[in-house]
Design a protein that fits this description.
With about 425 residues, the chain is of the alpha+beta class. It has one domain (about 10-430): Anthranilate synthase. Helices cover about 25% and strands about 30% of the residues. The chain is built from 9 helices and 23 strands. The strands form 2 sheets. Strands 1, 2, 3, 5, 8, 9, 10, 11, 12, 13, 19, 22 and 23 form a 13-stranded mixed beta sheet that branches. Strand 22 (about 380) and strand 23 (about 385-395) form a beta hairpin. Residues about 425-435 have low confidence and may be disordered.
């Protein structure tokens, strides 16, 4: 276990009156945000930060977090999801990435779960934490808008990369590989990034709206969730655009449900997730293990249909949510099958660093619980406001390059429209609702 310079953090949580719009309590320039359907946690400041790299970045973070928790003094009478000592986290997709993988313990957290609102104050200097609900801050005048343009992976480059991926599949080197492309832009100086997050949360309320260390987006895919030792994970693989009207939408849903190509892609992803989790599943009673539904269901989002499967079970003894994150990442839904060959192909075929796109993003609590999503439908936004957005799709033997390019265009839409300032329009066109 690597030694960590872990200060003796002190955390105190109190219940407070209904907090209203949580985004009003986040930092305008460096928000820490984890929201779904208006509930979640937002934070500001930094009491402790760990950075991790390489192949062992996730297990190293899990070891570091254990050391931080062991040294901490925690007073949490609220005991709601996300209360007490919490670290926000975001991890690079690949071991070779130049992007930093981080755990960040903030100084102040404002949260809400159902009817319970709370505030956690955290200190690192030995002083007594003094939690109180801060004054909500109105959004700044400068909006977080930008126009994105294609980066290194142009449409022609994307087609050539898919052709090379299909060669690897047809020659037996791979069953599936996920290839991404990127778009780039920049925020205006002084932009209030909470405006961007508000549009994402409004348009996609059923997704996880996240912001950690500049990684920003709204993900439909739960990597893993542990609450009171109950584990749930959601696998998404297989995609179709929504129809223009109710009848066309029903046809699109039916086609996806019976598409051999998408069902095969989904099956690879579910089998990969279960195989990864089996390495941690040490239950003696098979009835308490981690299992998946046999048949995927269709998940409706404002602009897409997905094939989805849920995995459920009980957390094995001695295991934390970060151990599950390490076991699951990368899933076949964002990497491919077999995993080592798919990751090699991604490095060879994508002319850019994915950074933390398709990596784990979420939070971990002192008791080992937490919520983590796959960082999709979003972008890396650095301190200067430079934006790199990503979208990808799974390539299997029956893939068509033109169809795959159109799929990435659909997957770019949440972040593109939010940056353009019109993400709410999509929600209104779909009635403001999505279905899990």
């Amino acid at each position: 276990m690597p030694a960590v310079n872990a200060p003796r953090l002190r955390a105190r949580t109190i219940e407070v009156p209904h907090s209203g719009d949580l985004l009003r309590f986040a930092s305008p320039t460096s928000p820490l945000v984890w929201l779904r359907q208006g509930d979640g946690i937002v934070a500001s400041g930094s009491a402790w930060r760990g950075e991790f790299t390489g192949e062992t970045r996730i297990p190293d973070s899990a070891d570091a977090w254990r050391q931080v928790v062991e040294a901490a003094d925690i007073d949490d009478t609220v005991k709601a999801t996300g209360s007490g000592l919490v670290a926000f986290g975001a991890f690079a997709f690949a071991a070779e990435s130049g992007a930093r993988s981080v755990l960040e313990v903030p100084e102040l957290i404002v949260g809400r779960r159902g009817s319970v609102s709370f505030v956690t104050a955290i200190t690192a200097d030995g002083s007594e934490p003094k939690p109180r609900l801060p004054e909500a801050q109105p959004f700044g005048e400068t909006d977080a808008t930008a126009i994105l343009e294609d980066g290194l992976m142009s449409s022609d480059e994307h087609r050539r990369a898919i052709d090379r991926a299909l060669d690897l599949i047809h020659t037996g080197h791979l069953s599936k590989v996920v290839l991404a492309r990127e778009q780039r832009g920049g925020l205006p100086a002084g932009a209030d990034r909470r405006r961007l997050l508000a549009r994402l949360a409004s348009a996609y309320p059923e997704c996880w709206t996240y912001a950690v260390d500049g990684l920003t987006g709204t993900s439909p895919e739960t990597l893993v969730r542990v609450l009171e030792r109950q584990v749930s994970a959601r696998v998404l693989a297989g995609t179709a655009p929504r129809g223009a009207d109710e009848e066309a939408d029903a046809r699109a849903q039916a086609r996806l449900r019976h598409s051999e190509k998408n069902l095969a892609e989904h099956r690879y992803a579910v089998e990969s997730a279960l195989a990864s989790l089996e390495t941690l599943d040490t239950h003696d009673d098979p009835g308490t293990g981690l299992t998946s539904s046999r048949v995927p269901f269709t998940l409706k989002l404002p602009n897409l249909w997905h094939l989805a499967s849920d995995i459920r079970g009980t957390l094995p003894t001695g295991v934390t949510v970060l151990d599950l994150v390490d076991a699951l990442h990368p899933t076949a839904a964002v990497g491919g099958t077999p995993t080592p060959a798919a990751l090699d192909a991604i490095l060879a075929l994508e002319p850019f660093d994915r950074q933390r796109y398709a990596g784990p993003v979420g939070w971990v609590g002192a008791g080992g619980d937490g919520e983590w999503a796959v960082a999709l439908r979003g972008a890396e936004i650095d301190a200067s406001g430079s934006i790199t957005a990503y979208a990808g799709g799974g390539i299997v033997a029956s893939s068509d390059a033109a169809d795959e390019y159109r799929e990435t265009q659909l997957k770019f839409r949440p972040i593109v429209e939010a940056l353009r300032g019109d993400a709410e329009d999509e929600s209104r066109r779909r009635g403001g609702k999505t279905t899990r």
